[in-house]
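In full, the data:

***
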Amino acid sequence: MIKQILATVALAASAVCGVAHAQDYPSKPVTIVVPFSPGGATDIMSRTLAERLGKRLGQPVIVDNKPGAGTMIASEYVARAAPDGHTVLMAASSLGIAPALYRKVNYDPVKDFAPISLVASVVHVLEVHPSVPAKNVAELIAWLKANPGKANYGSVGAGTSTHLEAELFNTMAGVKMTHIPYKGSAPALMDMVAGNLQVMFDAWASSGPFVKDGKTRLLAVTTARRSKLLPDVPTVAESGLPGYEAMPWLGFVAPAGTPKAAIDKFHAELMHVLQEPAVQEKFRSLGLDIIGNSPREFGDFLKQDIVKWAQVVKDSGAKVD
């Protein structure tokens, strides 16, 4: 009887503490660690969110850029940070891809992080040089099969999402394009315009101006569903390669062990911010589709994403030292 009473008291005390933690959080400035350099789309998006989250949370929200090593520097930093909700990572798809690509990764993308929410997908597109006689994905696949070994595709670097998206396409379509890696979209697009590349998977934010000028031809978006940003553009899956899906993403995670109360408070305020018209317009200008889901949904998605891209890495033989 005494044990039952003590257990009841302990449970009640735990609940009270949980409420207290929720009310106390945040008790100091919150830092969003961004794994990319200042000035890029992820940085601009993070600063947009930080400004508004700071007002809602009642504490300053600071952006700390820690680029390098395929986003692993920032990821490892947050994995080792105090699990109190005051340090979060604006994670990218590479969080889960890195363990399959690199020989040494000092974090586990599932065990070392607590998911908060998928924030947005980065709108990626499949485009071709105008000399390629394909107006849709089915025609591109037919052309590639009829011209084996003649197509080069560019990426923004070995092991990046644009590289793996093309390798997934190769595998699913039963074709073989030659990979030419570049250090960013700009040099790749220059070679595309010059006719040295026939195919490219790239972010709409960087490729859009070339498509609009007629220098490249847009065939499809890579996501499972059409993009809100490009509602008239079909998906790869619906225009010739059923089942294809590639969604580069950005989302908030915290160090594993962060109190649920802190996760829930940050998540709730983030959901409010993502509904603001000015925020939605900013995301559109950056080539991003807002998502905003629950911690559990994000966690389930992350696990599936890790398995999917690990298989693509294995099939393609892609490795980064």
